[in-house]
Design goal:
This protein is of the alpha/beta class. The protein is built from 9 helices and 9 strands.
Length: 286
């Protein structure tokens, strides 16, 4: 179901948020291998940048996380595709519009939007009683409103052209209760309630977009070993060594947008790891 390349034979264009590391980086890499030119959105433009990424209000952590848009761009370009790093902060609405405008001005219409980026910072591992309301606001802004803004920025053009894909990277934390309190193996309210809201978008939007040629996916990655998980989350009861490789979700994302079978799953809840296993989409896994 790869979008038509248009009369000029251009490659399809994807914009992936949260592409500096983890699942976003893996998705960008696999889309490039599938023939996409990939615009890469995140805050970390170059390796070694420092910003707050502690999961709790009880302490601050600004140590650099591995990964950057510059590094992801190199991987995309290694597949012979174009890469375009664009600064994108989910808590800065101006940056969202600027990122989309930059991509469309340089490359033309966006064929695939992957809403992968999410709020990083305090509140993930804090109890409700300890979490300031402004932090809950930040979760909702970054995990729900920002993806909706990006979706609305690209959607009218997709409908007008008769094709396009919106892919939301979702979470089961928005469907179930944790088995332990936040910070002790569970997660905070901000993450769970914002992901619950994000989870509702794909199905509803797919109903609205029936017969337009635009598809909307809810892709659930499950527990995935990412750089931040390995660096930050062991103290809170999360062992990165038990997670699936991020390439599992990268392979699934590429399959969904390049096959007729993938198109049939639009509007549904897609278990990424199960699909990868069933379709044997990643050599050597599991």
């Amino acid at each position: 179901m790869t979008p038509d390349a248009t009369a000029s034979d251009r490659a399809p264009v994807a914009l992936v948020t949260g592409a500096s590391r983890g699942i976003g980086k893996a998705i960008a890499r696999h889309l490039a291998a599938a023939g996409y030119d990939v615009a890469l959105g995140a805050r970390t433009m170059t390796e070694g940048e420092q910003r707050e990424h502690s999961s709790t209000v009880k302490k601050s952590d600004t140590s650099p996380l591995p990964g950057s848009l510059a590094e992801t761009a190199k991987e995309v370009e290694s597949y012979g595709r174009r890469a375009l790093p664009v600064y994108l902060d989910l808590l800065d609405k101006v940056s969202l519009g600027s990122a989309v405008a930059t991509v469309t001005e340089r490359w033309g219409p966006i064929d695939l939007l992957v809403n992968n980026g999410r709020y990083i910072g305090p509140g993930h591992m804090d109890l409700v009683i300890d979490t300031p309301i402004e932090i809950l606001d930040a979760h909702l802004q970054a995990n729900v409103i920002a993806p909706l803004i990006l979706t609305k920025l690209v959607l009218a053009d997709m409908v007008g052209r008769g094709h396009g894909v919106i892919m939301n990277i979702t979470s089961a934390s928005g469907q179930m209760d944790p088995t332990a309190p936040a910070g002790q193996g569970g997660w905070g309210l901000g993450y769970g309630m914002s992901k619950a809201a994000l989870n509702r978008i794909a199905g509803l939007l797919q109903v609205e977009l029936k017969d337009t040629g635009v598809l909307v996916f809810n892709l659930h990655p499950g527990f995935v070993a990412t750089e931040r998980l390995a660096q930050d989350m062991k103290e809170f009861g999360f062992d990165a060594s038990l997670g699936a490789p991020a390439d599992v979700i990268g392979a699934v994302a590429a399959w969904l947008v390049t096959t007729p079978e993938g198109a049939e799953l639009a509007g549904t809840w897609i278990e990424g790891q199960d699909l990868c296993r069933e379709r044997q989409l990643l050599a050597g896994w599991p």
